[in-house]
Design brief:
23% helix; six-stranded antiparallel β-sheet; alpha+beta; 2 domains
């Protein structure tokens, strides 16, 4: 007999990372009843499924979120470890998009590793799914990588 598949679970910290928020903001939204109903509340705080938070981002914040893991060499700007990708719903037309934001860890040219984001415009529109967006070619000169607060 196969064990039941347990969905990925997230707490306040992980929900904040998915949403691109600070942990405190996520806690405040939860206390005010603005986040989905948690599946459980433990002594450490609320627990949601990852999908609940991803659905909340799409339905309430107007953005598609894809959890992803990929290392990218970003030319003379160092390296980037992608953790998640967001696409603003305003940039989706007929199931394709021409831009996305990659969130994760940036290893700057000086070797320091910091939390970062890459805002990229694509050479050609791609389907709005994790694989297509993760492997899209960026328009030269129309992407930036920058450090963001952790």
């Amino acid at each position: 007999m196969m064990a039941p598949r347990i969905p990925r679970l997230v707490g306040v910290k992980e929900a904040a990372q998915i949403l691109g928020w600070e942990r405190h903001k996520t806690s405040v939204y939860h206390r005010r009843g603005k986040l989905p109903e948690p599946i459980q509340v433990l002594s450490t705080g609320p627990i949601w499924t990852e999908q609940q938070i991803i659905d909340f981002a799409r339905e309430e914040l107007g953005m598609m979120v894809f959890m992803a893991e990929k290392h990218m060499d970003i030319f003379e700007d160092g390296g980037f470890e992608v953790e998640r990708i967001t696409v603003d719903m305003d940039h989706i037309v007929d199931g394709v998009t021409d831009c996305a934001t990659y969130h994760g860890w940036w290893t700057r040219p000086d070797g320091e590793c910091v939390r970062g984001e890459i805002n990229a415009h694509f050479m050609e529109p791609v389907e709005v799914d994790a694989d297509s967006v993760l492997h899209a070619a960026w328009e030269p000169g129309l992407w930036t990588v920058e450090e963001v607060a952790e």
